[in-house]
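Possible regression after last week's pipeline update?

I re-ran a chain I had predicted before the update to compare outputs. Posting the input and the new output here so someone can diff against the archived version. Not blocking, just want to make sure nothing changed silently.
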Amino acid sequence: MDDIHVSPVLPLEIELIILQTALESNMKDTKNLLFVAKYVFDWLIPILYKVIILNLNKQRAWPPLPLPIAKLPQYGQYVQHLFIMATPEDVADQYLKYCPNIVNLASWKGFSQPQIEHILRLPLRQLDLVSRYPSTRIPVIPSVLALFSKITHLGLEVLQIEYLEHFPSLTHLVLGPFVATEVYVELLKQRPGLKVLVVRVADFVYSLIPRVVHEDVDDPRVVRIDCQHRENWRLHALGDPRNAWSLGERVVEERFARIRATKSA
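New output (post-update):
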């Protein structure tokens, strides 16, 4: 019987799945993967630069590779999630200018007027304002109201209920650990359309993987979660279901399911 010839070449779709899995499981091997072949490089670049965290006062991003300023005009289009931490203002300016497809933006500090102009052109759906100082928020001015109206996910360290009045599409809210209980209780009364309210705990454990720490709440939409802010943001940006947003959603859905089951019993 003749030997059956088996082609060693995999279908391109299978190759892509293998490469994506390798990239997501070990970001340190990214440089090696990029040099496998030209078509591999073209495949992986959009994945590589999808999530960028700017930090440490350097022109660097993590994960997984630096996206130098000089390459922003070419590759900035692939950035969808951007976290601006301790970053020089001119570097943040360039990222906001050359990354027109950001849907998820987080910042530890305020924005300059030129940066706000860039932000107004973004298709944002999620916004995290990490600073405790209200002065660092995007100011409520007529030009930003259209932007605010599209935001569905918002993260704030300090809550001012009147600030939230400008976010009519808000369904998910994460608050810092120092928001008084009576403040968000009043908020829930005013926002029946809010689906999930995650309150980060103040015990300073900050689990890298978000976890529910309390469930003794009157409103089933409130979920208290222990999580480290940057790591939680990264998990959500990468689509990891362990992030606090998704964890909160699952907890709330389970609570409402139990309520429905009790009523129908």
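Follow-up from reviewer: compared with the archived run. Residues 5 and 252 are 55 Å apart (CA to CA). Marking as no regression found.
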